[in-house]
Amino acid sequence: MVEVFTQISFMILIVLGVSLIMKLLKQPMIIGYILSGIIVGPYFLGILPGIDTINTFSEIGIALLLFIVGLHLTPKVIKEVGRISLITGIGQIIFTCGIGYLIAVTLGFPILTSLYIGMALAFSSTIIIMKLLSDKGDLYTLYGKISIGFLLVQDLVAILILMIISSLSSGENFVSQIAITILKGILLTLVLGVISVFILPRFQKFFASAQEFLFVFSIAWGLGIASLFFYAGLSIEVGALIAGVLLSISPYNYEISSKMKPLRDFFIISFFLLLGAQMTIGYIPQLLLPAIIFSLFVLIGNPLIVMILMGIEGFTKKTGFLAGLTVAQISEFSLILIVLGVKVGHISNEILSLITLVGMITIAGTTYMVLYGNKIYRIISDYLQVFEKKKVKERKIKYKKVDAILFGYNRIGFGILNSLKKIKKNYLVVDFNPEVVADLKKMRVPCIYGDVDDDALLRDLPLKTLKLAVSTIPDFETNDFLIETIKEQNPKTIVIVRAHTIEDAMDLYKSGADYVLTPHFLGGEYLAGMLKDIKTDREGYKEEKEKHIKMLMERFKRGHEHPDA
Q1: Cα-Cα-Cα-Cα dihedral of 340, 342, 346, 348, to 10°?
Q2: How far apart are CA 506 and CA 391, in angstroms?
Q3: Which of 124, 206, 346, 563 gets the most CB atoms within 10 Å of its CB?
Q4: Contact indicator for 444, 110 with CB cutoff of 8 Å
Q5: Which domain holds residue 496?
Q6: 120: Cβ contacts below 8 Å, ≥ 6 apart
Q7: 399 and 507 both lie in a single domain
Q8: Nearest one of 264, 66, 229, 218 to 155, comparing CA atoms
Q9: Is residue 525 assigned to a domain?
């Protein structure tokens, strides 16, 4: 026991060292974990503790990972995924899986193996992309919301595929086994669904009365249902995910998720360590060429598929390009899928090594692609025109004189637009979301569809007579470009832009912005002003309360939601 303890301790130290290197290279920790697995595996140090211990840790890690994914798949989120996310998510899976299968067959892989490879290439990592978008401050941009939407669609499809594969074994009737698996999964989910909807809510306050008790209940629920699915002939993975989905309707789902994440992060290390340790180094020379071909397909082919689908739906080339970059890697689901395939005897460990290698290459590549997406776009934007519908570009401005232009109609833009209406200025809204433009036209708001990064569009706008320009777009480079272009045409124009960080705000002031909106700090400043003006006058707070409720109800009717913390 002491020997296993010291081995695990030494293994964690190696993980720490490799993770530090990954952090400096701005790479996800997953790559560091897999590399650490290779180092501690049989081909190098050979200090991996008892395989049963690591396997158990790995199963717990996967179960917790899928449990947390399920917690965020609330009916509300699924409803908000939207038409474009559904079309892009399903379309990308079908095309990637089909093309990936054909590439695998062409390279000489057996039919069943090729099918597994195609499916593995089709899924992208929700967790990695959410982290990258969060780091960039792009979670609530148009492309960010669409990306998270179609990644959630992929997760839902992955649930079904994992459910099917989990109970299959070699030599059994494929069709009947699928039917039995789906039937058992549906029945078990329905029974547990009744419990979660009608019984659990009565005890929720009791569970949440003590933080430690909520923590223990969450673990018991997630791992307990995962085990129940396993004994019913399904898989631990599917059971854990369903457990999360069933608990997603709880008002404490985000609190449960935040408590589970540190535990998940610790145990999931074992899964990736095991993946790295199981990579057969001897196979790598012969797998290198297929791995490079599949990686190039994922890094280039997947974004192209998304750009084509989004272009057909009427989105700008920039939105399609940035959203496309988020699918340029394979996910944890891909690796779990291949591991399950090995377990049921459909594919060999050689394929596990291949897909793990593809995962490392694509995750590393997509990290830089997403983080520097705007810079890459500026370099190649002229070549992306083919991915944008010509008819949606309404560039001819019908307004002889425009006093104010609002770039980006969103939660912030809503209030600004109301103010422009009240001061009765001639105004124009420019937005690159076709659905937003359609809604504004229904409200008879002067608007055009366009991408602010499009220099030709900006030059067509009546900037020389413009008095006020307001941008609610969160991207720093876009706002910097906007300030430069507007001030060049008319130095007297008041330009107000938005920033997420103090550093960005100061840089935008240096670029010539007249005012920089910092949403995260405005709430505190507004409250400080209220305290100064109203002090302890109850009537004053009552008046502010009524105004706030009226504003919130108006936003609620528009379908606005506050971003999650």
Answers
A1: 150
A2: 39
A3: 124
A4: no
A5: 393-517
A6: 100, 330, 334, 335, 337, 338, 355, 358
A7: yes
A8: 66
A9: no
Residue 297 has pLDDT above 90, yes or no: yes
Report the C-alpha dihedral over residues 87, 89, 91, 97, rounded to 10 degrees.
-170
Residue whose tokens read 């192209």:
304
Per the model's pLDDT, the better-predicted residue between 194 and 530 turns out to be 194
CA 355 centroid distance within chain: 21
Task: Determine phi and psi for 328, rounding to 5 degrees.
Answer: -90, 35
Secondary structure of residue 516 in the 3-state scheme:
strand
Residue 493: CATH number of its domain: 3.40.50.720
| Buried-state track 316-336, b at ≥16 Cβ within 10 A, e below 16 | bbbbbbbbbbbbbbbbbbbbb
Closest CA to 275 of 344, 356, 342, 345: 356
DSSP label at residue 535: T
* pLDDT score of 394: 41
Last residue of a domain, one of 479, 501, 517: 517
- What token pair was written down for 41? 């595996």
User: Model-level pTM?
Assistant: 0.66
Backbone angles phi, psi at 496, to 5 degrees: -115, 125
Continuous segment of H or E residues that includes residue 497? strand 494-498
- The CA angle 124-26-324, to the nearest 5 degrees, is 30
Q: Averaging pLDDT over each range in 61-75, 280-294, 414-428, which range is the top one?
A: 280-294
What tens digit of pLDDT does each residue of 87-107 get? 888 889 999 999 999 999 999
| Boundary-marking domain end, from 361, 384, 407 | 384
Residue that has been written with the tokens 């009765």 in this structure? 424
The tens digit of pLDDT for each residue in 134-169 reads 667 676 677 887 887 788 788 778 877 876 776 565
The pLDDT mean for the chain works out to 80
Considering only residues 421 and 473, tell me which one the structure prediction assigns the higher pLDDT. Answer: 473
Number of domains in the chain: 2
DSSP state of 518: -
pLDDT score for 205? 72
Assess whether 241 and 344 both reside in one domain.
Answer: yes
Q: Do 325 and 408 have their domain in common? A: no
> For residue 226, which phi and psi values (nearest 5 degrees)?
-60, -45
Please check whether residues 209 and 188 belong to one and the same domain. Answer: yes
Q: What is the b/e burial string over 8-37, where b = at least 16 CB atoms within 10 angstroms of the residue's CB?
A: beebeebbeebbeebeeeebbbbbbbbbbb
Length of the chain measured in residues: 565
Same domain, 289 and 369: yes
